[in-house]
Amino acid sequence: MTKRNVEALLQDYDTTPVEALSGALRIVLGRPGAAWPELIAAAQFPDTRTAALLLGEERALDALASELNELRGLATD
Fold this sequence. Notes:
By secondary structure, this protein is mostly helical. It has one domain. It is 70% helix and 0% strand.
């Protein structure tokens, strides 16, 4: 993700976290038209993280936002 992509993520995150994260994941995963559940599945997170994200758990969403901000992508491990 570019600096501009990260800025957009952070700007929108407080008001619409799932939408902001969806936009970032669409870029990272190269899936411009994908919906939130598709993006989470494509990211291949562990089952517990996938479930937490799909439920909209704040800690899981915050962790993903932090990961995307710091790494400008997803961790591969």
